[in-house]
């Protein structure tokens, strides 16, 4: 698939665990994006000082570095473990520091892992957030159920699942410069992101 050599794909990892399945899966997706010709970067939220978001101090800690990294990317992969049917607090906090400047018309891919069944609600919640920020979310998404059985070290056990996650990275490159849809109803009502 032909790509622009200047395409940058980043991945925000919403898991802080050392042995994170989310991080392993995002690395796999980024590898596929790199193979498709993009420059890639894993944005490991463990490396950022991000206090709990306070709208009165939206430049706290490392927030300016985070928002600059997101803003400069052509496509963003959001990866999260599913906690209580939704996405993880570290990712929510990072996204709260972002707004339209970082996500409007941006191509976004979604990946979620769970210890149980398919993490569909976490993906739906992230899709809603992206819609409110007027991002263009890739229709293809990656769900990894029973993540503790999905990997042997850093490698996927199931070739079909490995291909699904790799496809997410490839689509991020393919659609990084897609012409976005008109502004969504949700984004027009999202004054807090301005």
Automatic annotation (TrEMBL):
Gene3D superfamilies: 3.40.50.360. This is NAD(P)H-dependent FMN reductase. Residues 8-148 form the NADPH-dependent FMN reductase-like domain. Its cofactor is [4Fe-4S] cluster. One of its GO terms (cellular component) is cytosol. PANTHER family: CHROMATE REDUCTASE, NAD(P)H-DEPENDENT FMN REDUCTASE LOT6. Signal peptide: none annotated. Belongs to the SsuE family. Isf subfamily. It comes from Haloarchaeobius iranensis. InterPro entries: Flavoprotein-like_sf, FMN_Rdtase-like_dom, NAD(P)H-dep_reductase. One of its GO terms (molecular function) is oxidoreductase activity.
């Amino acid at each position: 698939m032909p790509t622009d050599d200047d395409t940058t794909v980043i991945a925000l990892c919403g898991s802080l665990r050392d042995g994170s399945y989310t991080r392993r899966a995002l690395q796999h997706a980024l590898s596929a994006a790199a193979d498709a010709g993009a420059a890639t970067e894993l944005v490991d939220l463990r490396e950022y000082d991000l206090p709990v978001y306070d709208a009165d101090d939206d430049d706290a800690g490392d927030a300016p570095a985070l928002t600059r990294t997101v803003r400069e990317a052509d496509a963003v992969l959001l990866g999260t473990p599913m906690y209580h049917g939704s996405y993880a607090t570290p990712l929510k906090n990072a996204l709260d520091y972002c707004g339209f400047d970082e996500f409007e018309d941006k191509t976004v891919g979604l990946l979620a892992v769970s210890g149980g069944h398919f993490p569909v609600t976490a993906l739906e919640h992230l899709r809603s957030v992206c819609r409110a920020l007027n991002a263009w979310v890739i229709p293809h998404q990656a769900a990894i159920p029973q993540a503790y059985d999905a990997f042997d070290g850093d490698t996927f056990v199931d070739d079909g699942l490995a291909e699904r996650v790799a496809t997410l990275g490839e689509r991020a490159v393919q659609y990084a410069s897609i012409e976005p849809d008109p502004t969504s109803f949700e984004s027009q009502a999202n004054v807090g992101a301005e």
